[in-house]
Write a structure and sequence with these properties.
Blueprint (H helix, E strand, L loop, with lengths): L1 H50 L3 H10 L5 H30 L5 H30 L3 H25 L4 H26 L8 H35 L2 H14 L1 H19 L3 H38 L5 H11 L1 H16 L3 H26 L1 H27 L4 H4 L5 H10 L1
């Protein structure tokens, strides 16, 4: 029970911190500045997601299955991360100007600067956190992931007290918070004896081999999740993007809880000895994720209309409606994410790409249909459609690739809670 307790407490704190940082960004920057901040973070984030080669998933899988010693995995993933960072920074230098046509020179310069600082620090902190997660050190994993948000908030408050806060200040504070998480995690790993600087060629080959197979699905998944923001950034104003970003902050609050469940579930499913046990464990976590996401979505949708303008300011009141639409798709997103964990655990990662591609096509088609006539509401509805389509296709993919019966996975059982407690004690 300690794993889940640690994770839920951490998740609750992260949710509060995310609300506070989102509140400060909205209050101090306004819709236009909040939109610029969203754009500064959007394109470098997409660059990493498209180019990371799913190395974090590969590290998680190799650590969970004990395919190599922790020292070997650490040294190898750090070398791969350093090489990848250099490549992505160069790619960003040439690509970013093409997606910022019509934007100011000031914003383009800020994004270029953010890329240089963000990419290597983000990859470093991500891989450090994944070392803890993959080796089922859930306490360590929760501490380092908590430090990203709390560090971000601390650096924002520090800049605010000095009067140097602004769009660039918020972006720099996020990088600093991420760096803090990575440094603390590195010290912790060193004390556990897991730090080494001697990479292994065979381990690198294994990480890249698994990662490249998974990456096909990850690219499409990233594109599907960010296509709405990219469309708003490219075809609507910074003001609209600011409203949309606040709506995402509200609607994505429960996502942390869902990702926490998925993060615990994946190594446990992967470590199960056979197909039936994997499916049994998966079913428990699938049902847990869907129930908790539905309860969170309903509660937040009811409160959004009152809380959003009160917390973020009257200039963001339209964000409440946008977030309510987004929350409709939350249970479908939760189920889709859990099916991804199952497919990865069964080493059927190539199937994820095909399923996500259908979801992306659905999202792009819905955006083309809804965005011109409905604006921000159209972007939100497009994401609901994409989540429903992607979940349905992902479920059918699991059923066909491993012969799993889908209906029992969704059917609650009397011993769900006791079975989950037994699993979490392992």
């Amino acid at each position: 029970m300690k794993d889940m307790s640690w994770s839920f407490v951490t998740t609750a704190i992260i949710q509060v911190v995310n609300i506070l940082t989102g509140l400060l960004a909205a209050r101090l920057l306004g819709p236009d500045g909040r939109g610029e901040l969203a754009e500064i973070m959007l394109w470098p984030g997409l660059l990493v997601e498209f180019g990371i080669l799913a190395l974090s998933d590969a590290l998680l899988y190799r650590a969970a299955t004990r395919s190599a010693a922790p020292k070997t995995l650490f040294a190898t993933i750090m070398l791969l991360g350093a090489v990848l960072s250099a490549v992505l920074i160069v790619i960003g230098y040439f690509v970013i100007p093409f997606v910022l046509v019509g934007e100011s020179v000031r914003l383009e310069a800020a994004i270029h600067l953010y890329i240089v600082g963000y990419i290597p620090i983000y990859l470093f902190a991500l891989f450090v956190a994944t070392m803890f997660q993959g080796h089922l050190d859930i306490k360590g994993w929760n501490v380092v992931r908590l430090l990203v948000g709390t560090g971000y908030l601390a650096f924002i408050l520090l800049l605010w007290t000095t009067g140097n806060i602004g769009v660039n200040g918020f972006a720099g504070a996020y990088i600093a918070g991420t760096a803090l998480s990575g440094i603390v995690g590195l010290i912790w790993l060193w004390r556990k004896g897991w730090v080494s600087w001697k990479p292994d060629f065979a381990a690198a080959k294994g990480l890249l081999g698994y990662g490249i197979r998974v990456h096909v699905g990850e690219i499409v998944n990233s594109a599907r999740q960010r296509v709405d923001q990219a469309a708003v950034a490219m075809f609507l104003s910074s003001h609209d993007l600011g409203l949309y970003a606040v709506a995402l902050t509200v609607a994505n609050g429960p996502m942390i809880l869902i990702n926490t469940i998925a993060g615990i579930a994946f190594p446990k499913i992967s470590a199960a000895p056979d197909k039936d046990e994997k499916l049994r464990i998966f079913g428990i976590y699938l049902r847990l994720a869907m129930v908790m996401s539905a309860a969170s979505a309903v509660s937040l949708a009811i409160l959004a209309e009152f809380l959003v303008p009160m917390i973020f300011g009257q200039s963001f009141d339209h964000s409440a409606t946008i977030s309510q639409i987004m929350l409709i798709g939350l249970p479908f997103f939760a189920a889709k994410l859990m099916f991804i964990q199952a497919l990865n655990a069964f080493d059927r990662s190539l199937s994820i790409g095909r399923a996500e591609l259908i979801g992306l096509i659905g999202a792009a088609g819905a955006l083309a249909l809804f965005l011109p006539s409905m604006g921000l509401e159209g972007a939100a509805w497009a994401m609901v459609v994409a989540n429903v389509v992607a979940m349905a296709v992902m479920a059918m993919t699991l059923g066909t690739t491993i012969g799993a019966k889908l209906l029992p996975l969704f059917r609650p059982t009397h011993d769900d809670w006791s079975a989950m407690r037994r699993l979490l004690r392992k």
